[in-house]
Each structure stands twice: as C-alpha cells, then as structure tokens.
Write a structure and sequence with these properties.
The chain is mainly alpha-helical and about 120 residues long. The chain has six helices and four strands, in the order αβαααβαββα. It has a single domain, classed as Winged helix-like DNA-binding domain superfamily/Winged helix DNA-binding domain (Arc Repressor Mutant, subunit A, Orthogonal Bundle). A two-stranded parallel sheet has the order 1-2. It has a two-stranded antiparallel ribbon with strand order 3-4.
C-alpha cells in the first residue's frame, strides 16, 4: 500500500472507514489507525478526522477511539462531560477516571481498508 498523505480529504475518509470496523465492546487508538493507514506519526490527524464529523448522525463510532494509554482524550468533542465514557460503558467497557480499564484486553488492531 502506498503511504497516504494525511493532509488530504481521502485520508479523513479512510479514517472514517477504519473506525466503522471497530466492533462494539472494543477500542483502538489514534496511532493504531494511523499505522493501519500507512501513516505512522499521523495520530493527531486521525483525531482531526474524527473531530470533523457529526459522530451521532454519521454512524461512525468515534467513542471507540482513545489515546495509546486508553485515555478518553477526545471526550471534549462529545456533548456532555461523560458522553464518551457512558457510550463505552453501554458496550461493556469499564472506564474509571476517563481511562479504559484492561485497555490491552479490549484493544482492537484495525486492518487497512480495501481500495
């Protein structure tokens, strides 16, 4: 797979495609998504791609994407202070102090989308 330029719209679209593959009850990280898209080092751009959607209407489960330590660093982009944690809990993921408990156990390694 050719490296993807994280500064183009196609990158954002591909991020959205990958995030849709995260199953309920699992989480992944911004960096794992960037790595999957052959764009290591573009974890922040993955965050920007998720910030640019209306997660509720889009069907993209952005609440399943956390930082590399399992912290809910994107929570401020959801309505309400606890929305992201509540969504994760509703899927059976334990969250304490804005961090996924047993992060390695519920971690999902995404696969590159097919072109």
């Amino acid at each position: 797979m050719n490296p993807i330029n994280p500064l183009n719209e196609n990158f954002f679209h591909r991020v959205h495609v990958v995030v849709k593959t995260i199953p309920p009850g699992r989480v992944t990280s911004y960096g794992a998504i960037a790595q999957c898209l052959s764009a290591p080092g573009a974890a922040r751009m993955v965050g920007w791609a998720l910030n640019k959607i209306n997660w509720f209407e889009s069907g993209i489960p952005a609440h399943r994407v956390v930082n590399r330590n399992g912290l809910l660093t994107g929570k401020m982009h959801f309505p309400g202070e606890h929305t992201m944690a509540d969504l994760l809990r509703s899927e059976g993921i334990e969250v304490v102090n804005n961090q996924v408990v047993d992060f390695k156990k519920v971690f999902f390694r995404p696969k590159p989308p097919l072109d």
